[in-house]
Amino acid sequence: MCSKSKTKFNALLIYAFCQLFFLFNLEFPRGQNFDEFHYVPSAKQWLALQTNQNWEHPPLGKLLMAVGIGLAGDNQIGWRIMSTLFGSITCVGMYFLALVLFKTQEAALWAAGLTLVNQLLYVQSRIGMLDTFMMAFLIWAMVAFFSTWLPTQNRWRNATLLRCMGALFGLTIACKWFGLVAWGASLILFLGICLIQKSPLQPKLETTDSWYSKDLWLDVSWMELVLSFFIIPALFYFATYIPYLFLQDGQPHSPLEWWGMQSTMYDGQLRVITNHPYNSSWTGWALMIRPIWYAFEPELGDPTQVRGVLLLGNPIIMWLGLVALAACLVDGLYNRRRQGFLVAYFWCSFYLCWSIIPRKIAFYYYYYPAGMMLTFALTHVFFSWQNKAPQAFRVVRYAFLVACFGMFIYFFPILAGFKISSDSFRNWTWFSSWI
Fold first, then answer.
1. 20 to 30 A Cα–Cα from 59, which one of 176, 354, 396, 428?
2. Would you say 140 and 186 are in contact if contact means Cβ atoms under 8 Å apart?
């Protein structure tokens, strides 16, 4: 059993390191970085209690950015400081989720290290975008939900975890509607297992490590289900709209206008049809066919130098993670192991949902939640199978982690906006589609 004091110490250490690391060189790029063009003005409108012009998304992420601007000023630090905080919280959440899944500090710390050099987390933690806040709430909602699988769980603890999950899912959706995918996937899984329990065709194989148990969630009433999955998320989502009641320019909004705002957002999502040079198809995201240059700007006073920020996953993690994911799928379905099943299930939910989401323009950063799940796929392969050859697996998994760190260092100049010569960006763009 993991020591609580050791877990707290590790969590604080991870947070402190991430926070300091993400703050380094945060003032670059000097201009607004990619979609900061939309969200920085929106955050400043919240500070001035003016009518918000960014009506395509819910308000929470922009409210959090407004806090950063209010504390650090209308500058690069103010625009991005809250993203560094929530990016650090995301990494800590990945550590806790790995701890819940794999039950050992070594596996959890290994997963946290892999998360840090994933590259997606690093870049998203240093830009004022809604996905950073959404992912932080989403990963902690998953921590709460996954924790209900722990053995010897009493009714009060399960109810508390599910209610926390509901609150966190409400806040996830209040950052960006993609949170509905994670909420819906969790609800479908919960109901699916409950239906299997009532079916005469229950799985014959049931172990302490199985994703299915005939006793799982039996102490959760239907009222608790409705409260945790519907009422609490709706209340927390609605609460993020309270600032609309206090807008000072013209008439403040009425609570009755809330539904109209949702309809306007939905229409706005469907009407986003303007072409973009980094528009890409979801079918290519897993292979990183079309990443995004968030920024590419000349250095002030020296046109021979530029600073760029490329959103690109760590190639080792992104590509080999797909192999690990296939192993998780087989292990989850054939052996019914909980870790493999949950990792494969949520990766598929986060990724394949884009095949049916009716949005006409899409970008590689939409892969961010699914890309983060590859950390757990790799952790499952390297730790769950180590009993077959303990020493060999230990050497290989730490060699793999070192290789991922090396790849991160290699790409670091164009992840952190370092000054490079104007044509040297080609050293990192391995394929023409990466330009």
1. 354
2. no
